[in-house]
C-alpha cells in the first residue's frame, strides 16, 4: 500500500524552507500535506498567501472539520493546535501549549501517526527548539517514513538535531533532496 | 454521516479501552462523551495516563467507578477550560459595531453564553454592554457543564498576571474606558467589579443532554464546538437554533463555522470574518 499523507513541522527559518520544498511539488500531488510552522499567536495569514502565490499545489489555512484533500497543503492557524482524525478530517484545538508552542508539531505528528500509521511521511525541518522529536518517534514506531533536514544545511539546527538524537531517522537530507524524496515516495505508492 | 466509524479491523486495543472508559462514565455519572471528537478525547486520556501511575487506560476504569473525585478530574481534563478576557478582540469590536445597534432597538435582551468556562468571556461582554448603555436592559445566562469552573466564574477573581494581556485585548476590542476601572487589585489577584455580575445568572447546563431554557436574542458559544464530533455539533447547533428568536445572533469561535453542519442554510452570515451569524427570519 502507498503513502496517504505528508506532515511537515518547522520553526525558525521555516518560511524559506517550506517554500523550497513545496515549490517542487506538482499541482496533482497525490496526497494532502499538513503543516505546522510555529508562529506568533497574533500573526495574520501572510505565510499562507505567500506560499499560495508561489506554489503549484494549493496552500490554505487549515479549517476545522475539513476533509484533507490530495494536492492541498494545510497550514495550522496561529494559536491553534492542528490534528487529524480517523476519517482524515482536520481538527483544531485551543488546548494548552505543548513544548511552549501552539500550534505544536508533536500534536500534529502524533495524531497523524495514529491515523495513517505506515502510510505517513513525516518531515522535520529547521527550528530552534525540540518540538517534533516525539512526533517523529511516534511516526517511526507506527511504521511511517521519517525525513529530517540535514542540520548542516538548516538555518536553525536545534530541531533537526534533537530528532536525530531521539531516534534513527530514515533520511537526513538537504531541502532540495527532501522535495525530490517526497515526490519519489509519493510516486512509489501510486505505481500499482 | 455515521458517528460510529470504527470497524473492528482498525480499532486497536487502546481505542477499545477508551470506549469502555467513556461508557463507564456515562453509565455511572450520566456524562456522555461518545459524541466528542475522538482525537480530542484520546489525546486527553493519554495525557492523563502519562501523568499518572496507571499502566493502561483500562487500569483507570475501577478508579473511575469507585472515586467521584477521580471522575471529576477526568471531566476537567476533557473540558479544556482555556479562556481569556476579550479573546479575539476583533470579535468584540465587530459585535460592538454591528450587533449592538440592532440590540439597541429591543426593549429587553437575553444573551446566552454556552460553555462559559471560568467566566472571562461573560464579564467581557458585560463590560461591553455597560459601555453601550445596554447592560441594564440585558439578562445574561452563563452556562457550563463543569461545576468547578462555574464556581470560579461566579467569583470573578483572576490571577493578576493576566491583567496586562487583558488590558491590551480590551483596548484592541475598542474599549472606551480604562480597563482598570473594572477591577480591584489584591496582592496576586484582581477582583472584578461586583456590579458586572448583577445581570448574570450562572447555571449548570450540559449541551449534550440538556435542552432549551428560554428565548434568546444572542447565543455565544465560542471554542466549544471544535471539541465535538460532527453529529453532536449538529445537535447543538439545532439547540441554539431553537433557542434563538427570529433574527437572533449566533456567535462562534474564530475558527469555527456552520459550513460542515446540517443547519448552515438556516443562518445568514452577518459578520463573516468574525463568525457572527443571524437566524433567518421566517424559516
Ligand atoms: C475552551 S473553553 C471555551 C471558553 C470560552 N467560551 C472561550 O472561548 O474563551 C470550552 C468550555 O466548554 C465547556 N464544555 C465542554 N463540553 C460541554 C458541554 N457538553 N456542555 C457545556 N459546556 C461544555 C468546557 O467545560 C469549557 O469550559
Describe the structure in your own words.
The complex is a heterodimer of chains A (192) and B (283). By secondary structure, chain A is of the alpha/beta class. Chain A has a single domain, classed as Rossmann fold, CATH 3.40.50. In chain A, 33% of the residues lie in helices and 21% in strands. Chain A contains six helices and nine strands; from the N terminus they run βαβαββββαβαβαβα. Chain A is globular, with a radius of gyration of 15 Å. The model of chain A has no long low-confidence stretch (mean pLDDT 94). With 283 residues, chain B is an alpha/beta fold. Helix content of chain B is 39%, strand content 19%. Chain B contains nine helices and ten strands. In chain B, the strands form two sheets. Chain B has a seven-stranded mixed sheet with strand order 6-2-1-7-8-10-9. The longest helix of chain B has 17 residues, at 13-29. Chain B is globular, with a radius of gyration of 20 Å. Classes of the chains: A alpha/beta (192), B alpha/beta (283). Chain A binds chain B through residues 63-66, 77, 80, 83-87, 91-96, 107, 110-111, 114, and chain B through 5-6, 10, 37-40, 42-43, 80, 82, 223, 226-227, 230, 233, 255-257, 259-260. The site of S-adenosylmethionine (SAM) has 21 residues of chain B, from loops.
